[in-house]
Amino acid sequence: LKEENASLRSKINKLQIFSETQADKMRKLERKLEENKIKEEKEAQDLEAMVQHVEQNLQLMTKRAVKAENSATKLKQANALLQVQLQNCRTENEALRSGQSASLAAVKQNADVALQNLLTVITNSRSSIKQLVSGAESLQLVADLLKSIDSISEVSQDGQ
């Protein structure tokens, strides 16, 4: 009985040591489990923060894309308006060029008419100038004759 008692005590001691070892392992595993839970919670929070950041970036990019599309639409409209204005300017230039050709022809014709009129005036004025010079010469002759007559009359009055 003593031997059996000693054997049982030995088994009990072994079982207690085994039990303490198992309890230590259990505590270590519980600590590890707790650490893993904390780590997983932190990773989950980090992941959630990253997801929120990505969502914010996505919203910002969406806003930028909408803004860019609006800007592109406005630029397309402005471009279309400028194209119309350019076409109008080209048409106006064509009209001005054709009108300018017609204007140049009219100016040339007017210049030819003015030249003909000027030549006629020059010819007429030469004739008038010749008549005027001739008349001036005649007047000079008459003036000279009157001086001569005046001189003769003075000599006659002095000589009488």
UniProtKB/TrEMBL annotation:
Example of a GO biological process term: regulation of cytokinesis
Cellular compartments per GO CC: centrosome; ciliary basal body; early endosome; midbody; recycling endosome
Signal peptide: none
Transmembrane segments: none
Keywords carried by this UniProt record: Coiled coil
Coiled-coil segments: 19-92
Family of the protein in this entry: Belongs to the ENTR1 family.
Protein name: Endosome-associated-trafficking regulator 1
